[in-house]
From TrEMBL:
It comes from Sporichthya brevicatena. It holds the Pfam family Fer4_15. Transmembrane segments: none annotated. Keywords: 3Fe-4S, Electron transport, Iron, Iron-sulfur, Metal-binding, Transport. Its cofactor is [3Fe-4S] cluster. Gene3D superfamilies: 3.30.70.20. This is Ferredoxin.
Length: 63
């Protein structure tokens, strides 16, 4: 599974970073960035939760 952030939608809330800090960080400009775009099977639930909790629906996951 792969994950990405639409930086045009992201508002820098940082919920993704709180939920899955191995995969997301809010940079110095206040924009969410993906740290690792290939999601390990063991981390899928955390990344899916981050996607669900993103208020801007900026996180996308796919194969
Ligand atoms: S939760 Fe969504 S809007 Fe907030 S920083 Fe993460 S990707 Fe951006």
């Amino acid at each position: 599974m792969r994950v990405s952030i639409d930086v045009d939608r992201c508002q820098g809330h940082g919920r993704c970073e709180l939920i899955a800090p191995d995969y997301f960080v809010v940079d110095d400009a206040g924009v969410g960035q993906v740290l690792r775009d290939e999601v390990a099977d063991a981390d899928r639930a955390d990344v899916e939760e981050a996607r669900f909790c993103c208020p801007e629906q900026a996180i996308a996951v796919g194969d």
